[in-house]
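User: Reviewer 2 asked us to show a designed sequence for the structure in our supplementary figure. I'm pasting the structure tokens here. Could you produce the per-position amino acids so we can include them in the response letter?
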């Protein structure tokens, strides 16, 4: 991120902030979508985070910390959206019809579906750690900083998230037990 742009935005330059918002908006939305697993909630969380970033920007001491501060505010907005909306709504995506659907393509769809179901079973705290660490490739000390928790807590959340994800995938892979015929 351009530190000069951040400094100008800190001093009230709306054009500078608009440039910052364009530069980080898609990344923030992608992270929010991966945490919340819902497109509409992700848009709301991203918008709320951008408003909070604008409001709190003058208090930012180090412009080099803009990205970390932005992710922290985004995760907080995701937590707020997650608390506000407890109902699950399916996200349906239209897949292009013009492509061969070989067995490899079908198995990747099945794998993604299983992973999505397992990921939805995780708490929002666990999803946030997994997304920040694996999607953004942030080291655990930076994940902890973004989340405002100790490194040990981030490490623990990641451990339990991965264990929960593995358990969910294994549970889905087991054949259903049928009642014995009488």
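Assistant: Here is a per-position design you can include in the supplement:
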């Amino acid at each position: 991120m351009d530190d000069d742009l951040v400094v100008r935005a800190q001093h009230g330059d709306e054009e500078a902030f608009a440039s910052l918002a364009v530069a980080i908006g898609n990344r923030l939305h992608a992270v929010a979508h991966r945490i919340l697993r819902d497109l509409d909630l992700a848009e709301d969380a991203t918008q709320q985070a951008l408003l909070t970033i604008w409001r709190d920007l003058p208090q930012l001491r180090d412009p080099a910390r803009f990205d970390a501060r932005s992710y922290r505010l985004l995760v907080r907005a995701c937590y707020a959206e997650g608390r506000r909306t407890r109902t699950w709504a399916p996200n349906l995506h239209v897949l292009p019809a013009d492509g061969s659907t070989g067995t490899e393509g079908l198995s990747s769809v099945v794998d993604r579906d299983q992973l999505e179901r397992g990921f939805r079973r995780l708490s929002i705290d666990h999803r946030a750690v997994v997304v920040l660490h694996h999607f953004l490739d942030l080291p655990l000390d930076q994940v902890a900083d973004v989340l405002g928790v100790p490194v040990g807590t981030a490490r623990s959340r990641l451990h339990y998230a991965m264990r929960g994800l593995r358990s969910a995938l294994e549970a889905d892979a087991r054949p259903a037990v049928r009642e014995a015929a009488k």
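For the response letter, you might also mention the following. Helices lie at 3-10, 14-36, 39-56, 66-84, 103-120, 124-135, 140-147, 151-173. The first helix runs from residue 3 to 10.
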